[in-house]
């Protein structure tokens, strides 16, 4: 069974792309077959797994507009050992161009129906907005992973997102669930981080992953080499944390 997970939070800079690339590589290292879908026009996930976004003939943009089939756009990440539907700035045009298109919310879902079966996990790196691209991700997904920093306004942001998920469930995707909330760039010495973390657990209970991603400079450095942190520095705290997250996901799925 393929599990499609949208990695989403409308806030930028919370660790979505870092999580998408490194969770994909960690799951692949644990023998899962993984597809990473880059749904952000910035193409950071694409670059982060060693694929040059400037050299793409076709990207996920062409797939969403029905110009080419997804199988023709698939790339393999040599550093991450997983497949990628890459993106670049072309995708910025999709928002406007999809307006007049039939079934604009279900374009990604349909594309994945054509290629998704062979995978254990499809991870979708979402843009930092609740736009039509994000709607496509939430419509295609079985569940969402919400990376967040334990900061003062973080809980408000998450409740906005939960409301969006409820709307998507009512209109487009009745089975959409919250898979888990992931605390990123976590500093255990910060009192505020501890307080927000406690509130998060009170509110979302077992949806909060036990695994916490620490702030780790190796995670920030790895993308400039086109490598997941597992390749860049396997012994780093960041690499170990994402492996632990992948293991926690697999254990949860079994139980
Ligand atoms: P988003 O995709 O949500 O916008 P990113 O994953 O791009 O967020 O992360 C934002 C910035 O923070 C990037 O420069 C990234 O390298 C850095 N970063 C993300 N997670 C960590 C971490 N755990 N430790 C240190 N830096 C991080
Ligand atoms: Mg991003």
UniProtKB/TrEMBL annotation:
Residues 2-178 form the AAA domain. SUPFAM superfamilies: P-loop containing nucleoside triphosphate hydrolases. CDD domains: ParAB_family (cd02042). Coiled coil: none annotated. InterPro entries: AAA_dom, DNA_Partitioning_ATPase, P-loop_NTPase. It comes from the Bacteria. It holds the Pfam family AAA_31. This is Chromosome partitioning protein Soj. It comes from Sulfuriferula nivalis. The gene is soj.
